[in-house]
What does this fold into?
Amino acid sequence: MTDKEILDLYHDGQQQRAFNEIVRNYSERLYWHVRSLVCSHEDTDDLLQDIFVKVWTALPSFRGEAQFYTWLYRIATNVALNFLGKQKVRAALSFESLADSQVKKIEDDPWFNGNELELQLSKAIQKLPQKQKAVFCLRYYQELSYEEISEIMGSSVGALKASYHFAYEKIKKELKDNFSD
Amino acid sequence: MKEIKNTFNVPEGYFDQLQKRLEAIPSQHPEVRTPAVTVPLWTRVKPYVALAACMVMAFFVGNYFLGRNQSPSETELRLQEYYYMADLIPVTNPYAIYDDAPMDLYVPESSSEDDVVEYLISSGTSVDYIAYLLNE
It folds into this structure.
């Protein structure tokens, strides 16, 4: 079912059915997006519950100014970034940086299944500043266009291109340093 | 979407269970599901404008009625009389106001040098100038 059909279904009064379609179409995609930001399966699972509760309560106010899927991604990205903000404070109380705590999560993750390069890539991504990380993951993993990311992040296309470029350079340097050792 | 799925695994059957859990959300949050209605700005502001107008009216009406009925108090009348009389009190002889003779016909029998000095001092003439006049 397309987004337009889902919204028509919702406005026709079949709200539960429309919501089920949204869950069917987007739960996995949003899972992987949030997972790329927060790393942990358990945290992602908790956050997805919050995200879809927000989607359900905010659906009546969706006006269609943006694309439906960019609106969903925006909610998911904001929830994930807020979570990471709280994690940063928690890490600081343990005299640790958020990046280090996230890297530790990847190393201890029983669900990590990648090779050495993917491990180093994931760690390098976690060392990026939060918004840069979000832009990178939306572009690299979700393969969204800059225009779509602009709707999600509320930044200009130019700023996003710059952000992605800096993130890319940092990751490249990090991987070079790790593999040249 | 790039294959991040190859980097991370999920428990078997996770996404099916996830869907079932998420589909239960509407029953757990049964708020009224009516689309939001846009309320025009004027409709939202109207009650506050009406309240402000009532307060302004009440202020002016109250001011009018309270001002009309109020007569000067006894203290205010005494003060007014004091200020009127103050202009009539001659500097050289403050108690002259209590004499029966009209003030403008009062002529001192003689004006001593002391009276003159006292007058000059009270009129703000500098001491140096007074000394100069006395020495002339």
